[in-house]
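Inputs:
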Amino acid sequence: MRLSRVCSLAVLATVAVASAQEPYPSRPITMVAPFPPGGIADLTARPVAAAMEKVLKNPVGVLNKTGAAGAVGMQFVATSKPDGYTLLLALSSISIIPEADKLFGRPPAFTVDQFAPIALISADPTILVVPADKPWKTAAEFVEDAKKRPGQISYSSSGVYGTLHMAMELLSHAAGIKLRHVPYAGGGPALTAVLGGHVDALASGPAVVLPHIKAGKLRALAGWGDKRVVALPEVPTFKELGFPDAEFYIWAGVFAPKGTPEPVLAKLRDTLRAAVNDPDFKGAMEKIETPIVFKQGAEFARVFEADAGRLAEGVRKVGRIETR
Amino acid sequence: MAETLQNLALGFSIALSPVILWYAFVGCVVGTLVGVLPGVGPLAGISLLLPATFGLDATRAIVMLAGIYYGAMYGGSTTSILMRIPGEAASVMTCIDGYAMARKGRAGAALAIAAVGSYVAGTVSVVALMLLAPPLASFALRFGPPEYFALLLLGLLVLAYMSSGSMLKALAMAALGLLLGMIGIDQMTGYFRFAYGVVELGDGIGVVPVAVGLFGLAEILATAGLAAPPQVIKPKLRELLPTRREWRESAAPIGRGTVLGFLIGIVPGSAHIIASFVSYAVERKLAKRPQEFGQGAVAGVAGPESANNAATSGAFVPMLALGVPSGPIPAVMLAAMMVHGVSPGPLLIEQQPELFWGFIASMYVGNVVLLILNLPLVGVFVNLLRVPYPILYPSILAFCILGVYAVNGSVVDVWIMLMMGGLGYLLRKLDFETAPIVLGVVLAPMLEMALRQSLAMSDGQYSIFVARPISATLLGVGLILITLGLRPLVTRGLDWRARLALAEKGDEHP
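Outputs:
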């Protein structure tokens, strides 16, 4: 009995030593997408994982760990073993969730510093759309009208403190206007609301609204990027219009849990750099009309921190929402 | 019309090509399986299989995913009827009378009627989808939060017809369901309500673990508690088919369920569950012998099962005609189109006629496939009842746990299901019905969201509900229903006065 226990311990120890020495990666890697299949995180994670698999010649699987606006999956990665076998494909909301937790004084599901940023994969500025039968032809008219009628122009969003809510709040503060927020449970219902004319405006990623703009159902007024959206060259940016603080992107980046060894992180950075140049990956991103913006290491960390700071301030400015 | 026929011919030429036929068949088979497995509904099934379709072309992928969606509605009735376990959330109502029929040895008939009802509903609503999609879709878009709220309020009225026992007990159960539905993130302010630090509770209590726990687990526990094991039902082959009387009694419910399901289905939101609830209530209201409901009324199977199938086709109306994600499942299917480089939008039918018409035609074909697939399976499934309980029930339990876990990969959901199983057992012992709890859990978050969104839209003015024509109409219908419900009180009162008057007359003229 005792002998067998000693034996099994010895075996375990050998395995442990072996695994400490084996080259990375030597077993399947899991990429956690904290949103359900079909969402932008999932649609980015799958081609990224496929391209990584090609580069690493090692299986990379996508796991949709969903719930609580992404908090469940992000918490899962934050608390998993920092060995490079569990990665996270996160969206901008990664920096919003802990800030909102702070606002309500609840123990955070995770904090931003539990992650090591590896690389930025894509960044897509949101654009402001209104139903085509609304009177505003330009962003200037929209802002002017909003100033005249504070709290009267309504917009839908993917949810309170969600990315689409934050984009509008950043605009409101930059332009000194007050809009009426009607949150929906997700980007899909928010789009349905603006198409049905139940709200007056929506900040949205370009890809999902482009067909409706082309069909003449929605009108794009301006974008939150520092450059115009390629598919909509006639639509100005808020920066051009004199609101430099209205800058917002829905981005997707790959993270590892903090404490992942530097050689592993370096390997992952190289892998991702090769992966984003893979033709299949480029084709997949083209189909979902999401521009690839690759930044890694220190450069990504800087972008991430700046963005997190902007969003944290955005959340604080919104504050706790008190409803009547 | 000629153009439609021409387009349909194009569609059939695509749908009947061996490759597309094969993917429609695979989708239907997977859908049936997904429906049969307790807990795993069409959303989970489609989500899990979405990545597998990335390698296919758009038409194949959409045809297969749609097959899973409506296939699940066929399969969902199976475990509801045989074991009182809702195969997916929209089959909750089928549990009540379907299972009661099975206990009377009419499982085969219930399954056959569910399959035929689904077939009729599926086929008729595809015709409606084909002919009416563009005009109906613009109408569906006019359903904003106030309209949705009014519709859900109508859904709550359904409660009055759901219970066969005490109204007070039914209301108490509905209240419990509504309270359970309050758990989770407050969608308007971001507060966590009753989550006690469990992040998974942020999304609230799911319908699936509640339904599987309250119905399936409670049934298993109750059976285990019997002094003598229940008699194993040995169905005879000739008893598999519905009798002429059963056919006659299901014809009208199937028709009504189809129309109702399709109309509720086009409204953006999670409508197929509500469609089945409303259909059950309508059938009960219209039944000649409402006391049979809950005891194995065939209309209680035919109506809801047709309604949930028609609702799936209804949900495709805004999706195909306008590119609007009208619910979680159409949203996943729209994403599938985007992955294949098809921009879903108002121009889809024009720009991708082979996709649209191929899809429509494949739904005709798919419904036939499902009928052919499901009718013979009735015999197979019914034989499951021959399996002795000590083997059958533990395996069902294992499937329930697996199914509920698979939906979100969440152990918290499994715990919710187990707790609901215990609660369901207790409530059964105390003679409470559990269906109103499920209705409450389904309705509470939607009702609250719609109410508060409406008020956010109107800046707190309640007049928004009567100022908008559709919501005003719906509320008016609700008011009429309540008035009709109160009529027996009044008429009985008149009877009483009339009797008194008669008695007095009798006193005067002895």
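Remarks. The two ends of chain A are 68 Å apart (CA to CA). The longest strand of chain A covers residues 115-125.
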